[in-house]
What we know:
Layout: E1 2-4, E2 7-9, H1 11-58, H2 66-69, H3 82-85, H4 89-92, H5 104-129
Antiparallel strand pairs: 1-2
Amino acid sequence: MAILRGWRLTRRGVLFFAGVLILAGLLFGAIYFVHERAEQARRAEAVKIAEQNLEDQSQPATETTPAAEEGSNSNGAVAVNESEVTPSNEEAMVPELPATGADLQSLFIVTILALGSAFYITSRRAVRDL
């Protein structure tokens, strides 16, 4: 048992501190993993929507005019109304995807508050026991 600045360093204390560090590392690793999975899912959804929009734009609807249906063209070609072929701006706009996942700043603030309150309670108990 060693004394370090008034603290008695025991094997149990070192193991407890190491355990806390390992659990904190696992917690932050899990949060990072979940955050990255959410970001990946959001990107996949955006890619799927973009591909669908490109597919819709590459295959315009070809509608015939009544004059073309009656056979008024001498060469037999079908007339296409240009205003009906171009997609409207509303179709081309992609809705913004909502943000998901944990906000790391708020998580850090909650962690600091929890540690601060735990240290305060520990110091009050130590003063009471003296």
